[in-house]
Amino acid sequence: MKKQDVINFIEDFRQNSGWNRVSEEKAIRPDLSGLEMFDAAVCGFAAASDPAFLKLRESGVIGPHHPLPADWLEGARSVFSFFLPFSRSVRASNAGGDDPSPEWLHARIEGQDFINRLSRALEEWAAGQGRRALAPAVNPKFAFCYNDNQVFMDDRGAPWPVSFTSNWSERHAAFVCGLGTFGLSKGFITRKGIAGRFGSIITDALIEPDNAVPDNIYGNCSMCGRCAELCPVNAISLEKGKDHAICNEYVRLTGVKFSPRYGCGKCQVGVPCEFEIPRR
User: Residue 63 belongs to what domain range?
Assistant: First the structure.
């Protein structure tokens, strides 16, 4: 399995699978049928044994509830992360106002369905090459935790009280794979910006890592504060970053208003890091 083969597979799936466009039956409005949700992806590769994955298990980072790649897939040798930036039409539609645009709602929900399908397709593709691969986010063992629900255990088997976390972080996997750094809003800034979605695959294939884990976890963020200005519920500040509880409650309310979809994304558009790494 070669890097370029991975990149080519993702791009072929994006262009030709049909799942990157909103279907007629799911379109919120008739004119949104056929809406393209994602542009071409960027990918990063890391060794499954990279010590940075161990760092994620520290309590000040994610915590001991975050498994190592080998805990997900025995014999894991490589991890690759991919970022799919939202299309220009999706991003442009979400500028202004407090409510997420219909285009953004599609990209958040149908877009995640596309990423899930792509992740499973990558697993099958690897199997066809005689390799094992696993996408944690679509695996039955994947779990997310809100509001101090003690669903995770530490290394001693004791309940680990955490909130707004999961047992596999796509953004942190992207960090280890060298795709970029975090921003003030706790979004992740790649060379194609912050507005988009992530996926990752763990495999027993040996792929040469090309990652260089940044020393500064906020290195790509100019700390301009524009995302804080645009947040409709003031969940972001220069002093404290993002308050996950405030953000989550607002997103929950959008789920009530726009059911079965939800989202926001106001901190990802109209900002210097929307589609590139901003200048300092």
Answer: 3-268
